[in-house]
Amino acid sequence: MIKAGDILIAKPFLQDGHFKRSVIYVCEHNKEGSLGFIVNKSHGLLLRDIFPHLKNGNFPLFEGGPVSPNQLFYTHTLGDKLSGSQHVAGNVFWGGNFMELCQMIENDEVTSDDIRFYIGYSGWGEEQLDDELERDMWFTKSSNYVDLMRINPDDLWGEELVKIKPGYKAFSDYAFDPSMN
């Protein structure tokens, strides 16, 4: 049974363009649906690229998923320091008052170890994720958010895949585009 704070690891044969080789941190999972963020796909931009007024906005942006691709989201360990944050698990939260967050960033009160920013999110309707799990599209695993955020995003899928299925090492070494092998 999956719960908030767990991760989804795309199985090697999942070919969906958004989720191929994805690791998703699940922030909500209940009878109404599920919500999470792809944590291993860089968007190629920094926070300051979309908010140039943030002189300290040197935080990388990640592609959180295909839903709401014009909105910014974030997961963090700031907790009650950021009003409006929603608890996920342990010391992990998502969202919160963006104006307060901007002030914290400008005051150097936030580091990249504290927060990760996403463009869009991954969402599933009622029982949709449970159905995908039954159809064997994902591995699930409990996670340590802090450790997860410290792994190089380009290596994360392969590392998590091998932790679950050591016999899948060949898949983790295989190039995203097979023509590159």
Give an overview of the whole structure.
The protein is an alpha+beta fold and 181 residues long. It has a single domain, classed as VC0467-like (3-Layer(aba) Sandwich), CATH 3.40.1740.10. Helix content is 24%, strand content 33%. The chain contains six helices and ten strands; from the N terminus they run E-E-E-E-H-E-E-E-E-H-E-H-E-H-H-H. The chain has helices at residues 47-50, 98-106, 128-134, 145-150, 153-164, 169-173; strands at 6-10, 23-30, 33-38, 42-46, 60-63, 67-76, 86-89, 92-94, 115-124, 138-142. Strands 1, 2, 3, 4, 5, 6, 7, 8, 9 and 10 form a ten-stranded mixed β-sheet that branches. The longest helix has 12 residues, at 153-164. The model is unreliable at 176-181 (pLDDT under 50).
CATH architecture: 3-Layer(aba) Sandwich
Instruction: Tell the overall outline.
Output: globular
Low-confidence stretches: 176-181
What's the rounded overall pLDDT mean? 91
Largest sheet: 10 strands, mixed
Q: Give the N-terminus to C-terminus distance in angstroms.
A: 36 Å
Can you say what the CATH homologous superfamily is? VC0467-like
Order of helices and strands: EEEEHEEEEHEHEHHH
Radius of gyration: 16 Å
The number of distinct β-strands equals 10
Range of helix content = 10-25%
CATH level 1 class label: Alpha Beta
Number of helices: 6
Number of separate structural domains = 1
How big a fraction of the residues is strand?
25-35%
